[in-house]
């Protein structure tokens, strides 16, 4: 029992397996509810609630009609995906005894998190989704906007890395000479797993209550939200690092995992669509998708996390991500305002159209095109990594690169 | 294990533990030992991976102490 517990909570899960499981669950969630695993749409609604709370009137904002700002977050399935992810991640963080208030030594990180978060939030909503709806769950819906988004995010993250590597951005830590190494404080009594277990029980009761009171959609969202939260926390799934680490050092682990998982999810989704006749979720592909994807990519590297990764890091006690979350909400709300008030829609989005591969080329070609595109991504990752690691300047000459 | 230098990166989030560690190692003499302490969960995986792929050696298996991670890396 103890060894099983250690295997599950003592170490992080293999990211490839974890993401494949997440891809399977996201396809299943679509099959059950007709909606996808997504978070930033709900963030936009939360931003709307904040504006309303401070007495603002958002009834005339066109973007809130688009994302259906009605009722409270707790009465929406998209809301329970977000709350479920936060609670699920918190449960496993506690069960693993891994909660700790972590404050960056470099104070500039807070400003960076806020700015990066705002840029990422703005970009994500302009592109109609973050790493989920416009990427991880967008590709398997055969929505062409996600293809544009991947390229644009790639360019944006590349630029972000250029900024993050500069001296004034990264700052300098104190390098202390010699030891003694600081002795970490050890907790005398481990209480976190008990708190985690208690929260898990309460949350399970809430889910039962949703089903008993005739709200199966909320119950389903609450279950899937928690599963997604647990998976991204236990696998330390970081969409930001998939792009960033490739540009930074040629690290490929996360990028490959995401591509493989999207391929699995795409195959499952096409089977579901072919067998049920369900309509895939399609978003508008426009110049806005490209501009938004670029801004999103830039923002997530500056903030050190996207909207998804931010959620479990916040639950780990990383204080930085409170600022990133605030930045995200500011960004999505700014976009919702700029959408009609500042003409963003007319300039960047109005010329676009909803393009889905399934009606455009039939289900067979849609899956072939998607898998070919993903194979192309995989190949690019391998080749770029070889190039990057091959050009790393080795510090002491004779050392071998082991990749 | 005695270290020549110590980097206390507790509180810093990804990717800075990796960047700082590689920066510090670059300026060290071959054979010197760098001790790194982090508490960003992502760093438990990416710090050892990145130092090894940059051609350095782990002088000792990474260690988890409570919510913190201890690394000993040979430049």
From TrEMBL, chain A:
Primary localization class, coarse: membrane
Domain of life: Bacteria
Statement: the UniProt record of this protein carries the keyword ATP-binding: no
Membrane topology per record: Multi-pass membrane protein
Classification via InterPro entries: Sulf_transp_TsuA/YedE, YedE-like
A Pfam family the protein falls into: Sulf_transp
A GO CC term assigned to this protein in UniProt: plasma membrane
Transmembrane parts of this sequence: 12-32, 80-99, 111-136, 142-164, 194-211, 217-232, 253-274, 286-307, 319-339, 364-384
Family statement: Belongs to the TsuA/YedE (TC 9.B.102) family.
NCBIfam families in UniProt: selen_YedE_FdhT
Name of the protein in question: Sulphur transport domain-containing protein
Organism: Bhargavaea beijingensis
UniProtKB/TrEMBL annotation, chain B:
Molecular function GO terms recorded: transferase activity
One Pfam family cited in the UniProt record for this chain: TusA
Entry keyword set: Transferase
CDD domains: SirA_YedF_YeeD
Domain UPF0033: 7-31
Origin superkingdom: Bacteria
Family: Belongs to the sulfur carrier protein TusA family.
This protein's name: Sulfurtransferase YedF
The species this protein was found in: Bhargavaea beijingensis
Originating gene: yedF
